[in-house]
Specification:
single chain, 95 residues, Alpha-Beta Plaits, five-stranded mixed sheet, 2 helices, 25% helix
């Protein structure tokens, strides 16, 4: 297991709004000890920014690719980078 810290910016496309996806990501990210946020975007996609141990981030991505029961995940774009340490917890952003 890698304890290397990473940051991911994830865009999730498909039927991902109005299906409990943000709460799903929130619960998993918190249980994995990740920091960052999840929010809906105007184009109907979902944005996740998460920082933490690489193995925890990979577990989150496994769940995101499946999604909650009512979701239909068509595409997941993932971009890795160095963590910035700007978050103190994981939260849902309502905008």
């Amino acid at each position: 297991m890698s304890s290397e810290e990473v940051r991911v910016v994830v865009r999730v496309y498909g039927i991902v709004q109005g299906v409990g996806f943000r709460g799903f990501v929130y619960r998993i990210a918190r249980s994995l000890g990740l920091k960052g946020f999840v929010k809906n975007l105007e184009d109907g996609s979902l944005l996740i920014v998460a920082e933490g141990r690489r193995d925890a981030v990979e577990k989150l991505l496994e769940h995101v690719r499946r999604g909650p029961p009512a979701a239909v995940v068509e595409r997941v774009d993932v971009e890795y980078s160095e963590p910035r340490g700007e978050f103190d917890s994981f939260r849902i952003v309502f905008e």
